[in-house]
Design brief:
Blueprint: H1 3-6, H2 37-49, E1 53-64, E2 67-78, E3 82-88, E4 96-101, E5 104-109, E6 114-119, H3 121-129, H4 135-143, E7 155-157, E8 161-166, E9 169-174, E10 183-189, E11 197-205, E12 208-216, E13 219-230, E14 248-249, H5 252-258
Amino acid sequence: MPACLRGFVLMAAVGCAACAPKLMKLPTGTGTPAPDIRDAIVEATTACQVVRSLSAEIGVSGSVGKQGLRGRLLIGVASPDSARIEAVAPFGQPVFILVAKSGDATLLLPRDQRVLEHGKPAEVLEAVAGIPLDAMDLRRALVGCGAALDGDAARAIGNDWRVVPDGPDEAYLHRDARSGPWRIVAIVHKRKDGPAWRAEYKDFANGLPRSVRLAGPEFDLRLALSQVDLNVALGDEVFRVQVPRSADPITLDELKRARPGVRKD
């Protein structure tokens, strides 16, 4: 297996999955009707709904499979469905560059001169990091926004929790006190073709989270966003990658097999 693939996904193995902090304790129960849900949804989503593009530096820690990981990503996402992710190395070329636009994804491993072209974005990102997100869903996940919150079916659990269907998923709105703002603090994603997983949000600034946790049976990644720019113009060139003629193809199956193996510091 090429050296870069042994270093996949985010470059350096550290710690273990068992060392991860506990997930947020979400409320359970049938609850009661939530007459205030319209105002709560507006308050929780006003900031994220207007985000059409985002670029950020993201510190990543956590695990994929049973391997602890730490690394740094440069990310750009834009509406409706464009994304670029670079896994930055301490020196030299990036570990990988993933670009996606209009349902078409390319993954380049510059150090190994390997490339996957014309993949489905969600399948490629899942092969890389275990996370089943396409470019549109990645943008929503980074800003903590639901896709289709259904206030008519929402329920209140106590004074400070509201649970709102979001298509097949469930969004959890919370406020720290009755006078505090409502925030989407978690979304539980329920997949038809796989196990459920969740996104958790905290450390809000101007209504948007700066800490995001993506956790499922095969992954637990904690993202710390910094250098965040919102609604800046990201041209088409951002979502393209120059593939060297010498690059050899790599398959999704090879990526999935490579994912658990990470290079030790």
